[in-house]
Fold this protein.
Amino acid sequence: MTESGFDIAGLEAGHRPVSEFRYEKRPVVRGYNDRTLYVNVGDGRIAEKPVSADMRAKFTGGKGYGLRLLWDAVNPSTKWDDPENEINIAMGPVCGNTNYPGSGKSLVVSISPTTGIPIDCNVGGYFGPFLKFAGFDALEVQGKADRDVIVFIDGDDGVVSIFEAPGEAVDSHVLAEQMVAMFARDEKDRQHISSVSAGTGAEHALIGCLNFSFYDKRRKVARLKQAGRGGIGTVFRDKKIKALVVRYSGLDVSSNNPADLAGLQETGLKLHREIVTLDDQQCRMREIGTAHLTEIMDEYDLLPTRNYKFGSSPDSPGLNSHAFSAMVTHGLPDGCWYGCTMACAKAADGFELATGPYRGHKVTVDGPEYETVAGCGSNIGVYDPRVVMELNFYCDTYGLDTISFGTSTAFVMECWEKGVLDSTRTGGLEMTWGNGPAALELLHRIGRGEGFGLVAGLGVRGMKKYFAEHYGADPKLLQDIGCECKGLEYSQYVSKESLAQQGGYSMALKGPQHDEAWLIFMDMVNNRIPTFEDKAEALYYFPMFRTWFGLQGLCKLPWNDIEPADNSSTDEPAKVPEHVENYLAIYKAVTGNDLDRDGLIRQSARVYNFQKVFCIRMGKGRRIDDWPPYRMMGPVTVEEYESRADRYDKQLKEQVGIDPSGMGTPEKVAALRAYREDRYEKLLDAVYKRKGWNREGVPTVETLHDLGIDYPEVLEVVKPLLV
Amino acid sequence: MPSVKRLASDSSKCIGCGACMTACSTLFFKVDDPARSCISVTPSDSGSKITVCDQTCRLCVAECPVQALTVSSQGVVMLDRKLCVGCLACVAVCPIAAMRHYPGSANPFKCIACGACARKCPTGAIGIVVEERS
Amino acid sequence: MITVNGSPHPWREGMTVRDVLEERRFTFPLLVVRIDGRLVPRGDYAEAQVPDGSDVDVMHLMSGG
């Protein structure tokens, strides 16, 4: 046994080499390696591939590279568990610099088990930057292994190896520690090791996530950030990968070799200072991260409660930021990459687990972030922060997405309430609102691959089908209350009163995640984008702008979770103009290339439209796929209508032009629904037009030509749909 | 009780000659350049303003993600450049701008209370002190 | 009567920006407040008077995930 408590020698004795590849180490040049790494865990092939000039010019990096490689790897009939499906991890030119907060993101893409189309995740941790400095702009993992394997990329020595690893743990909080203990040469080296792993839950559910580790020198813990959405962890375990591990020990300001280090430092220091001086009066990200939002969302009726029926609850104070602030350790530099003074990666230390296979263990729990508080808290009626913390821990270590688990469990609970489920169908679990122990036990059953856990692990779309087929449940009701679109579970905001956000969610290419657009305040509270054209413009600009973070390896949070002191006096405060200028400046400082605002949007628009065509190629991405469940658009039930009766009656009267007095509630529900669904159709028309797509949501040849992505294989997909 | 070794200053004695900055930048960077001196003397309404790390607030030590900044046995905040990744978070959190940075260089720098500047000060405005702290 | 983000809101003597924010329960920290187009600095909310009939625009910026 070693100091770590693991029998590393015993684990290593079980390893069997599969293949090894040596490569020439070369320095990064202005943010780029111009080569990618291909690893096939099925047949053991490992190779480096050059990045063509065209790929670099059109796809920029990060998600662009990941999608380009994935397109070439799969065909229109590829399913998520086919060997040709890939997990691609790509970084982007700005990724890995240590000067500008939020510069350590990896972009992960794969064909999703729950949507069947490309999914993309933006994740922190050290893996991506270390992989880049090991010599590669992207890692492409293809094939399916017969036995559990680990892939190790030694960026110090220039060696990539695949070996069978039968003995290592699967659950991430153990495995990530084992990887550090196994590959670090000494105590100092621990910070130079990062792994990607999933967990036992990802073996049994379609909603698996990946954990990217970052070693915390003060806590002496390998901490975890999640590539959560769309089931990439499930693909990972289906490929029988236990871990991808990278070592890079040479990190300094020259690792990314920027064209203008002084310029990069100047811009970085400006933002560091802004965060240090203003954050405590603004979003308190340094104190509690995104969990600061819980009480705000509750106040604005946007915090999902009981499967998005309502937007607030009298019990919400139990989950407010102060409850979690009291549980996390303060005063530590909690960046998920170096140089992030926003430091929102909060963690509770010495948290004693009350349930499950690790009951009684004292562990470090990363989070919770807002999404987890809402998904594993209010949305399932749980208001005990310790239960949320425990759900958070187990979701992570089992390799399950907290958002999809939360939204799926909320759906299960509403199906229980509506009589679709009972204890014979759930294996004895009383899935009532707020039953924390039942939610935890459901999670453990997913982890063990047992009984109803297997059903819940299908995610909302899979459960809708299952409940209709096996329990004779009404498919229309399930469609109305099952909060998924394209097969992906919704993230945690109530979009009922914001048409723009309904579009932001349901038109998001990968499925309803809010990373493309979060327009609720702009639309619903500020009343700033009243017309369809206004909304369409916002649904053009923000998705394009925000796509850019994923091309560069950047985090979105330092863009608008902190704002300059004089932001209020600018023309467009919601865009945070000074920060946009910062991004143009750091892009230039790293790559040496000029970029203006239009050029930024254009970089994004190329990849965005390419991804759109990719979705169509894989069988989704048409108008019909952009239709939300009605729960996300308005009150489905009499109960929901009556909970906000004044609001809805007023809307009927003032907006729809119907006098609600004398109408029964079901009639009013139907009238409001007809109005809202019609408005959503009009929104689709306006947004498609603004994006250069036809009425069916297909990019036109002109749009693709204008963006320079009218490749023959792209046109081949859209042409039959444009006649 | 831990002690703190630091450079103490008395700006009322300072004549703003800059000898301290010359001594410091020459010693550490082999150039005579106030921008590369750990101690900074600037004109102020009352004569001179002397800015140098007082070794006690240690916000930079807490902020450093790689623990490149540590407190020595003598109570001096020291930077290990081999560990530093150049993020400059320490520069941003320093409340008195005594953690310094020269544009384009890999690492920040700060006063380590070596006393080289004090030996060149013609008026005794600066000097090394060792204080016991509770 | 005043207008807040396009909808009517009752006015009273001595009303300040902070009063308006409290009455509308605008608790989000990243706000940009303008009275008849004139920016009110964040530090001045407690003192800034809202005249009767004025058009108050409380722009919420964005944050989060």
Notes: The first helix of chain A runs from residue 8 to 13.
